[in-house]
């Protein structure tokens, strides 16, 4: 039973993790003696991988620079969208822009 659980743990781990174990000189015998250490080593490996992964760009980097935007164009497009939405609501018979 114990051997099966060790095999199941090894199937769960990636080749990168197994390579990391080799680099840190962790022997299979040591892992067989103490299966709990395997889980601990896996957690440690995850932490080291988090530090090395590339960061995602922030949302502020994805938004175009505000100084390059033409506010007149933005206002014009908002008015067009408002008119389209107003026409759509009138055609449905329930205007939300009642005066």
Strand content: under 5%
* Major sheet attributes: none
Order of helices and strands: HHHHHH
Structural class: mainly alpha
Q: Low-confidence segments, ≥5 residues, pLDDT <50?
A: none
Q: Rg from C-alpha positions?
A: 30 Å
- Please provide the count of β strands: 0
Molecular shape: elongated
What is the overall number of helices? 6
Give a nutshell description of this structure.
The protein is 71% helix and 0% strand. The chain has helices at residues 2-12, 15-23, 28-33, 35-52, 59-62, 71-92.
Please tell me about this protein's structure.
There is one protein chain. With 99 residues, this protein is mainly alpha-helical. 71% of the residues lie in helices and 0% in strands. The protein contains six helices and no strands. It has helices at 2-12, 15-23, 28-33, 35-52, 59-62, 71-92. The chain is elongated and about 75 Å long. The mean pLDDT is 76.
Summary keywords:
99 residues, mainly alpha, 6 helices
List the SSEs and their pairings.
Layout: H1 2-12, H2 15-23, H3 28-33, H4 35-52, H5 59-62, H6 71-92
